[in-house]
C-alpha cells in the first residue's frame, strides 16, 4: 500500500458563510465554527438543540443504540444572546465513547467503510469508529445548520423541510409541493409524512434489522421562499452547491434536483416549465426545474433528493481480506449501528441545505456605503 | 421583479489547479485561464483541439447547425512547447455570431432557460443567446479539461472515458468495467459504445427532431488508474467535487456515483464491496462504491453518471407569459439548437472530471524541501 | 540546485472582487480577468487607457525606453457599454518584444532579480525578461485597477491619489492631508506634487542614470471617502490587505500605514487620535491611524506608503557567479530599463489600492431578499 | 453613524495550512482550528505551552498584570500523541475575566482603539475589553504558530527567532545574521539580545509606565533554513504573505523585509546581492533582499521587521467625545494594560511567521501517485 504521509483534509465549506467541523468520533468532542454569521441575530443553545435531538442516536428501535445527550455548548460569537458578527463556535461532547469496541478491527479494513482509504491517504488512522469518517461528525453539521436556518428564517423567511421519500423499494408519492412542516414529518419514527407508506417502510427496516442487515433509501428536501436570484453561476450554481453538500454526507451516492433522472426520459415539450403569474410575480406552472434555472433560484420551491446507500455496518459475517492480504471472516460487529440511517439523516440533509443557502444569501448582496 | 443590481458571478473552480472561464456566447470569444498547472509539461494547441472538435456543433445531423471552427489559441503560460508554471490562457473566437436571432425574445423569458433568473439577479442581461448561460461557455471548459487531462495522463497515467448511457427511455447495458477508449465511443454519432443501442438512440433523437422536440438522457464516465488517496474529506470528498462539477454543466439535473439511486434498493449485505487481492494491491470484488470510499479514491475505477434534461430550446410553439405578465405564444425558435445535447456533452463531462481530478492530484501531495 | 518541477503560481487576488493576471513579458500579451465586478456599471476601454498611459514606458527620459502603445482591449463582460456581472477580461498586446536581448543571460542569474528563485522553484523559466516576474505584468494590474476605481468612484465616491514622496534621500514634506488630484501629481515627470522637491528628485535620478545606476524611493497613497466599516478583521484587516497588495508589486520592500515606523518612536499619549465632530460624523483630530482602527476604515483618509528598492537592472558591470558556480563579470545590460521606477509605480500603487478597496466594498454588504 | 448590521468577519488565514481563530477576550475561551496539518506528526500540549507562556501577561513588571495561566487544551486531531491529518483544535480558557472593568466605556469610543469602527461595522459590539479586537485573540495565534513551528522544524529544519530591535528611539544594532536562539532573546525581560541596549529599553519603558504612558517599537524576525523555492508569485509572494500576517497583529503599523525603507536610499549598484558559492549552493554575498527574490525564498535567512505603535491604552486622562458627540474627559483606565507590548509581541510575530511558512511549505509540493 502506497502511504501518503503528510497529507491533510478539507474541513470547511462556504465562501462567506463558512462552516468548519472538527473532532473525532471517539475523541473528547465534535464541534464546529460558523464564520460569516451576521451580527445582531438572536441566538442561543435553544436554537441548536432541537435539530441535534432529531439527529441523536437512540430515538427509536429503528436506529442505533449509542446513547448521546448531544448537548450543544456555544463557546464564542455571542454576547447577551446576540451574535457579534464574530465566529460562532459550538461544541458537543462525546459522552458514550467505547474505543474498545473497535480493537479487533485494527488490521481489517471494513468493507465499504473508509478504513482502507484513510490509511492509504494519511498513513495513520483513528483507532476506532471511523474517526472523522464516522457519522458522528454530522452532529457538528447539524449544529451549524441550525444557526444557518435561524438566519435564513429571520432574515429571509426561508423554510426547509426534508423527509424520507423511499426506503429500500418502498417509495412514497411525490409530496414536494406540500406545505407541511417538521411536525408532520416527525409523526412517525421513519420520518415519512405519508403514514401508510411509513408503516411499510418501518416493516422492511425492522425485518432487515432482525436479519442483521441494513437498508438504503432516499431523502427528499424542499426549501420554500428562497428568493429569486440566489445562486452563483458558473461554478457555484445553486444545484452544484447543494449537490456537493449532499454528496459530502456519509453514505450519499446520488443527488437529483427537480425532475432529476426521471426527467431524462421526458421530451423537452413536456419538461419545460412555462411561466404564469403567481400572486403578482412571475412563477412557473410546473416545477420540473426544482426551483432553479441556470444555477439561480427562480422563486419556486427548491426541491432535491439524496440517495443513501444501505449502511455498511451489518451484523452478519463477511468474507474479506486484512491489510496483509490474508482471507478473514469478519464477524458481526459488537459496536452500535443503524439498520437504516434515513430517519436520522433527515436533519443532516436539512442542515446541509441551510448551510448552502445561508452562503448563497450572503453572496447575493448589495453593497452599502 | 426584484432587481439586484451590483451582483456578480463565480466563474472559477478548484483550489490549487484552478480554472476560470470567461466570455459571452455572442461576444468576441470564450476563453479560460488554467492556474496551478505544473511547470515542465509539454503542451500545445494540438493537445486541446481534439476535444474541442468533439464538442463542436455541426458534427452530425443529431446536433445543432451552428458552425464554429472552435480553434484554440494559447495566449500565455507556454514557451518552446513547455508549460512555465504560470497561468495558461486559452481563447476560442466566436466566428458564427448571430445576435439578431434573439431580438424578438427581449421581453419574453424562454421557459426552462436562464433568461428570467439572470435578469432577476443581475438587472441586466446579455441581449442574445443566453450570454454566459449558453452552452457555448462549455467550450472553455473543454479546453481546460484537455490541459488537465494531459497532466493527469503524463503525470499519473489517469484515463477518462465517457459515453451516452441512455437517451430518453433507451438504456445501454452497464459497460463501466470495460476497457474501451474514445475511439469506440466515437464509432457512432450518438457516442454510445453499444452499436445496437446506439442505433435505437439515434432513431428516437431523429424522431424528436422531426417533431421539433428534444430528448434527454444520461452520460456515464469512468476514470481509470486514479491512485488510492485522492479526494479531500470532509467537504471536498471526491464524489462531492465530481458532483458539483457535473451539476455545473448546463442541463444536468442529477448525479450518481457507483451504485447510485439503484443502490438504495439493495441490502447492506449485497451492497458492500468486500476486499480481495488484485495484482498485489488491496482491491474490491465488486465496485458499488464507484471507486470512492469516505470521499477518497480506493484505486478501483471511479464511475459516475450525470442526468441531462431534454434541451429546453424546441421548435414548437409554447404558451407562456412575458416579463409584463401578458400571455404570449412563443413561436418556434429560428436560432440553432440541439434536439439532443448528449453526444456533445460527452467531452464536457470528461473535461469536468479531468479538472476535478487534476485539482485532487495537486492537493494529495508530499512537501519537498 | 534542488529542482522543484510540477509547482505552480498564485495569480489571483481578492475574495469577491477577484483579479487574475496572466501573460509573460515577451509572450503575445499580458492580460487580466476581473471577476465579481458588479453588473450595470458603464465601462469601456476609455476607462482603462488613461492609467495604462501613466504606467507606459517611454513617457520621459527618467524611465525605460521600451516602446509599448499598451492599448487595452476588453474581450468579455460588457455589452452595449454596460457590465453584465460576468468576468471582464482585458488584454494588452506585447508589441515591442525583444527576446534576443536576454540570450546571453541564459546561464547567469542576475543579482537581485528573480531568475535564480524561479528556476529553483519551477525547474524551467521564461527565456527572457523575467517572464511573469517582469514589471510588464503590472500593466495587467493597472487595467484591473482602473475597473475597480470606476466602480469605487461611481458606487461610493472613493478617490485614490498616489505620488512619489521620496527618491533616494530626497524626501517630500507630508502632503497626505491635501486634496489635490492626479493632475497635480502629473505636473512633473517624477510625479511629486511639490514642484521644488520634484526638481531635486529629477536631478538625482538623472545623475544615477548617467552613471548607469538606479535609485529607490517611496510612493505615498491616500484613499479619500472610504466609508467607515470597510475592512474585515481578523486576518483581512484593511492594512493587511493593502500591505499584501503593495508587497506583491515588484521591487517593494516595505509598507507602512498612518504613522508607520516613525510612530514607533512616539508615546501613546502623543500618538492617540482623539475623537472630534466633523460635519456631523465622528472623526479624529489627528490621523496617525491612517484611517484604520482595528483593521476597519474609520472614515478618515486611508494613508499608506510603499518602499521601492533601487532597480536591480543597472548599466554597470557586476561581479557574480553563474549557475555552475563560476565567477563571471556580468556586463551592462543591453536591454531597456528604468533608472528609477517610481513615476511609473504611481499608477500601479493606485491600482492595487483600488483592487483591495473594491473587494472590501463587496464584502461589507447587506443581503437583500 | 451608519450601522451596517448583518456583516461578518474573516477569521481564517492560509490556503492549505489554514488557521481559524475564535473567542472573545471576556467570553469563556479563545481558541483556534489548524486545518491542513500533516498527519503523522508527534504533537501534544507540551509543544504549544512554551510559546503561550512567553506571550502570557504578567511575566515581568514591563507588561500587563492580567493573570492568565493560558493552559492549552487540544480537543481534536490527535490520537496517541500523533496528528491524524484532521483539524487540530486548541482551546485556551479565559480565567481572569473582568467585564465590569469596561462598563463605564459603553458610550465612549476609546481613542485609537477599535471600539468605534467595530460599532460602525457590526452594529453591536462586545461589551468589554475589545472582544475580538483585544490582544487576547493573539493567544490563539500563538497556539497555532507552535503547531506550525513543530511541523516546520521536524519536516524542514526551519528555525524562527524574533526579538525587540527598537523601543521608542532606542535601537539595537542589526543582529539579523546572528545564529542565537530564543534563550538569548529571553535573557532579559525586554527580549533584546543585546544586553546593554536591553537595559536602555527597559529604562524608557519603566519611565513611560511611571508617567501612565506607553511606548512603541519594532520587532525583527529571522527565519533560518527556509528552502529556496517557497513563496507563490504573483500575489502570494512570500513577503506579501508575511506582510499581511504581521499587519494583522494588533498595533502593527508597518512592515519591511530585508533592506526595507532604508534600502530606498541606496543606489542599485550598492543594493544588489551578488551571487557567491556557499557550501555547495548558490548564495548571496549580502542579504538586502531579506532572503526573498521575486516573491520566492532564495535560501538565505528570511529577515523582516514589524513596527508596533505605542499601546493605545494609557493611564492618563484624554479629552475626546462620546458617541453622541459630547465632549468628555476619558479618565485613566482601571483595566489592565501594557506600557509596552513588545516583549509579549515577540512570540506573536514568531507564530504568524510560522503560520505563513507552514502554508508556503504545503503549497510548494510535488504530487505523488
Task: Give your account of this protein's structure.
Four copies of one chain form a homotetramer. Chain A is of the alpha+beta class and 369 residues long. Chain A has one domain (12-363): 4-Layer Sandwich (Chorismate synthase, AroC fold), CATH 3.60.150. Helix content of chain A is 27%, strand content 23%. Chain A has helices spanning 45-55, 115-122, 138-156, 182-185, 195-210, 238-247, 260-263, 268-271, 342-363, and strands spanning 12-13, 18-22, 29-35, 72-76, 78-79, 82-83, 88-93, 159-167, 170-171, 217-224, 252-257, 275-278, 281-284, 292-293, 296-297, 302-308, 318-321, 327-330, 365-367. The first copy, chain A, has a five-stranded antiparallel beta sheet with strand order 1-2-3-7-4, with helices on one face. In chain A, strand 12 and strand 13 form a beta hairpin. In chain A, helix 1 (45-55) runs antiparallel to helix 9. The longest helix of chain A has 22 residues, at 342-363. The first copy, chain A, is globular. Mean pLDDT of chain A is 90; it is low at 1-6. At the A-B interface, strand 1, helix 2, helix 6, strand 11 and helix 7 of A face strand 1, helix 2, helix 6, strand 11 and helix 7 of B.
